Request: fold
Amino acid sequence: MERADAGAKRTDQVVVYAGIPARIAAYFVDAVILSLLFFAVLAVLTLVIGPTVRFVSPLDVLRARVVVDPGRVVLDALVTTALSAAYFAFSWNRMGASPGQWLLGLRLRDRRGRIGLGVRDALIRWALLGPPLGLIAVIVGTLAPLLRPSAIAVAAVWQLILLVTTTRNERKQGIHDRAAGSTVVTSSRLADRVGSDGGVAAGAP
Amino acid sequence: MTRIGLTRRHFLALLGAAVVPLVPGLMPALATHVWPAREGLAARLVALLTHTTSAAAVGRAYLAQSPHEARADRLVAAITSGWTGTAPGAAWQSASKPELLELVRMKIVDDFAREEVAILDGWIVSRTEARLCGLVLLATEGARSV
Amino acid sequence: MLLDARTIPDGAQLETDLCIIGGGPAGITVAHALAGRSTRILLLESGPDEYDDPTQSLYDGESVGLPYYSLKFSRLRFFGGSANHWGGYCMPHQAADFEARTWIPHSGWPIGEMDLAPYYPRAAELVGIDTTRFDLDWWITQDQDRPLPFDAARAVTRVVQIVRQNRRGFRFRDDLQDASNVTLCLRANALEIVTDDQGRTTREVRVGTLEGARFSVAARAFVLATGGIENARLLLASNGQNPAGVGNDHDLVGRFFGEHPRFGAATFVPTDRAIPLGFHFPHRASLSTIEGYIGLPRELQRREELVDVQILMQRELGPSFDDAVDAPVVRDALALPRNLTQGRLDEFGSHLANVVGDLSTFQQFTVPGAPLPIPYPELVGEVLNRNTADRLELIPAIFGDLAGAAYAQLYGAPITTAIFRTRIDQAPNPESRVALGTERDAFGMLRGQLDWQLTDLDRYSVRRTLEIIGAEIGRLGLGRLQITFDADGQAWPEDMSGGYHHAGTTRMSADPRRGVVDGNCRVHGLDNLYIAGSSVFPTVGSGNPTYVLVALALRLADHLGTVLS
Reply:
């Protein structure tokens, strides 16, 4: 659609596959932006339907006793996960990069080499990046605290798998990229500074 | 393009300035929440106390008073049992660091409620905190002897 | 009417309906209650209107037991009596104080809480407090400060009211002087109580002035109200007819001297700066300046077989006692952050503070699903809404130790610990006694000798009370308690003193073999000699003697009004 033109212009350029450090840095920037966004949204949610964490009485600070509403924890997790999905799917689809990637000069290309992903691919890529596993860990941890360490472990192992598969792929496509048909490329000078282990390929895909 | 680059740099700098002060406080939380504990329970209990010298001093006073408890397995058993709360024994084994801290604190409250206390140098302390300190003492002395 | 004893001719014989010996709170109360009636009252006061050293020296005496205040100054000998140096603390005895407690030998009063209850409203007016309410639940509604949140089955807070300094005089001199039936006779020293030959009736009291005159007062009834040491001394010294003295057929006069022993027994170290202790120091509430004493619930004392031990807090650093009493609101910047303990605790205490601190941190509650561990907005709001003291605790909990340390560096308050001082309702002990010494005063009367003694039950009770309160403080996460008192030793702490509360030396019992006076404060075996004041208390009690003895004196006045009319 609107991204097609921009993408088409670049398919015949020499592209650089973004390196792992640049991609992690981009993710960290997104994490900061998302955290601020979550904080704002939860602040509104707290104002509207009340707090998740409550001090039982003013004296409770003495005993460090707070009460956490487990239902609200799950709701908060659902809200933050949905926001996260919307944030990435929207930015990948409309801008061709998440704000973090954009700041670091990274762009996502779809299977046809165009900048930006379709909504479906964007959601697949987001899901496989792991946020739903975090949600599952929260829900499992709330319902069955004993299983929480295992759920967190699964999420952590998954992150490791993504890292390894990305590193070992010549187009730097991790499992999430392969499923969504995406590649992360750079055409910006910024990338030279942030990371230099990206692969170089003529043409694409 | 140059203008965009400047904007990016400014934006990153501002973001960094806003976020960096938070990070030292946040990273421990990240670590404790994300990474499952792999060490044994005794080691994880010991890790709750960061003031090792202090804990060892308190532990020394306690074990001098209760020398029969001066074994890590006995201390761990005593810390995780004799509990009137509802947390099952398994909860101690699988607890993350914050959960372990919470369990210990609940046990300390439980100790005081039942007057399960030790009087060390006049100080009225819960047996659980005294035993934790005993564990730290055994851990540090053990390390020294190796 | 006012009379100066120096104007009474030597050898004169005065006659009245009621002779009250002693112009302190007890004697004044009896006279005041009967003022305006038809009963003629002569109130004999040893001193003048103000302090007079030769008169005061008549109180001098030897202390041979546990260290005690100078006997010369433990009571004041001029009009108003010891109310002239009264601290103004008021609290009634509790119902349990009157009960015979099987584990406390010689405990139990022949009267109960309900016998005094009708007299407290008037007693409150006389002592200068505006309400007779002492229940914590009510005071909480009148006060911005809060007591420590004890589980009522483990520890309790008791409210004591403190009369303002300018209302403490207890003089009512004009009232008495204006009353047509009252003669206030100053500089009149009672030297001997004289009974009839059978020792059944008090005939007269012999009186002297320091200038050398002697006269006597005959009356239909006599009230002895000269304080816990002097009452016993006068009875023992009145041995003209009976070598044992008056009212001493069973060798009880002077025995069972009781006090409220006080000493620093423990150090309370709060775990954090946010713990509000203001309620437990003198502070202004709606109607009065009040203070919260800490004690054990009576049921727990019964189970543990303890005497009542109340705990008074004393700041290690802070305003002086007198400044604190009348301060409108005494706010305590109390704090013991775990990172700032150096220099204030001994080495072991610092180690323990570190350990407790390690275990006291919050779980760091973070928003689920967030890629970075961000705190909940409400926790941030909580930090913004709190005062500095609370923030010092919350910031490390929410943002981590580094942020906490930085904040403490900027806004940290000095550390304050509190000394727990005892106030023991000491177990009645016949070996703790007032006797006649060997030296004589200006009148040739044998001086009083005090042998104050405590029992193992007192020591054990202090220890157990502190252990239980210490555990409760730990359970609530308020801090830790260090018992500094050598509970296993034999010696009592060097800083031990009393509260100038002299009790027990003419104790009350329905049984003449167990008490000097009966439930109406009448001396057993004598039909017209009464005793007013805390010397009739069989146990010192948890309350403050002045307030209780004024109520008891009002009850006595009621009784005398009936007897003499």
The radius of gyration of chain A is 20 Å.
